[in-house]
Amino acid sequence: MSTFLPKPEHKFTFGLWTVGSTGRDPFGSPVREPKTPAELVYLLGEVGAYGVNFHDNDLIPIDATFAEEELIKKDFRKALAETGLVVPMATTNLFGDPIFKDGAFTSNDPKVRAYALQKTMRAIDLGVEFGARIYVFWGGREGTETDSSKNAVDSIKRTREAINFFCEYALDNHYNLKFALEAKPNEPRGDIYNPTTGHMLAFIETLDHPEMVGVNPEVAHEHMAGINFMHGVAQAWEAGKLFHIDLNDQYPGRYDQDLRFGSRDIKAAFYLVKFLEDVGYDAPRHFDAHAFRTEDYEGVKDFARGCMRTYLMLKEKAQQFNSDQEIQSILAEINAVDSELTPYFGKYTKEKANSIKEIPFDRASIANRGLKYEKLDQLTINLLLGYR
Ligand code: DIG
Ligand code: MN
Ligand code: MN
Predict the structure, then answer these.
(1) What is the C-alpha to C-alpha distance for residues 99 and 106, in angstroms, rounded to an integer?
(2) Which one of 166, 169, 247, 264 has the lowest number of neighbouring Cβ atoms within 10 Å?
(3) Mean pLDDT for the chain?
């Protein structure tokens, strides 16, 4: 049995805002004293994380003076050097300040849209300064409560114009950056544009530089939309667009809970980890989650350790699944190739079409075949519960 201790090769990362969450929620004030970015880096170093991510204002307060900014960066850089943590991803807070109350890129106010461009360019510079290679856009306020307020087509066009602008900004400055778009269906806005990873994949194809832009799917966000998260991740991967991933957990039909990874739907988490490991996903495994409001900072460390341990335990379960003879023999049987039909699949030809039209099918006998999915699923449960 391995000890499930995180290593740099696992590329486990946390945002400053995750382990730095002070436990504020819509119905209660903070329960934990805030820690500085440097203190959070040391905390992440203690639990064995590989990297740390930040929104611009997680690191540099929006009204910091130049001197304050330089001191913060100096301490942050020192903590990174002493712990060995890296900064794989950065992003912009375009949702916290009141100016963004009606969105940033999709705000009806051109002053807000212009300020959002300015703030994001500065945040990109900051992320690049600390080595970020992936830049995330989460449009938390890009939406409506009343659709009397915005033209949905104009909103998509404004979003496209902004992302095109930042792709050109990165090219113009020779930044080695990839952009990752993160979807969420609602909260904090009543409805958010581009609400799922699928919407984002379609949107990316309308951009001027689609090759620079991928997605950053988040477990909780797709669960909020009632979607099978692994299926969306698989579609993004197959399209070559899985640039980053936000791992956490979520009870269906609730607000964005950002729970510890694997703490709610262990079976869904298993299939996700199995997929990521089976395909050799090699980008950061980012836990965009936070500890329960009940916790002190020892509890926050328990939360962070739990995210990484659960991932590693499920990684071992996936290896067991892949080497389980009974499971693999069932999979081999239900995926058997029919050599007689093989010539008919693949690209279209007129000959194939005409031949397929003439094949006699015995629908009843084909339909009567039992697929052993109950046995396969129970074997999976047995394995996950440690009885296999
Ligand atoms: C929320 O799930 C969003 C913001 O925290 C951030 O912009 C993004 C990066 O992981 N996730
Ligand atoms: Mn979330
Ligand atoms: Mn996220």
Answers:
(1) 12
(2) 169
(3) 97
Ligand 1 pocket, residues with Cβ under 6 angstroms: 15, 17, 91, 136, 138, 182, 218, 246, 288
Question: Could you give the 3-state DSSP secondary structure of residue 138?
Answer: strand
pLDDT of residue 2: 60
- What is the position in ligand 1's atom list of the atom closest to the CA of 137? 7
Taking CA atoms only, the protein residue closest to ligand 1 atom 4 is 138
Q: How many angstroms is it from 274 CA to the middle of ligand 2?
A: 22
Question: Whose CA is closest to 20, among 47, 71, 61, 59?
Answer: 59
Per-residue pLDDT at 1: 53
Domains and CATH numbers, the chain: 2-316 (3.20.20.150), 325-384 (no CATH)
**Helix H or strand E encompassing 191:** strand 191-192
Q: Which of 58, 249, 258, 288 is catalytic?
A: 58
In this structure, the residue with its CA closest to atom 5 of ligand 1 is: 288
Give the ligand with the smallest distance to the CA of 257. Answer: 2
- Predicted pLDDT at 3: 82
Q: Identify the pLDDT of residue 168.
A: 98
The rounded distance, in Å, linking the Cα atoms of 344 and 8 is 47
List the chain residues with pLDDT less than 50: none
Nearest of 199, 130, 122, 126 to residue 159 by alpha carbon: 199
Catalytic site residue 362? Answer: no
Q: How far is the CA of 324 from the centre of ligand 1 (A)?
A: 37
- CB 288, CB 247: distance < 8 Å: yes
Among candidates 63, 118, 72, 129, which has minimal Cα distance to 92? 118
Residue with tokens 């290679």: 133
Using alpha carbons, select from 321, 243, 320, 224 the residue that is nearest to residue 285. Answer: 243
Does residue 58 have an active-site annotation?
yes
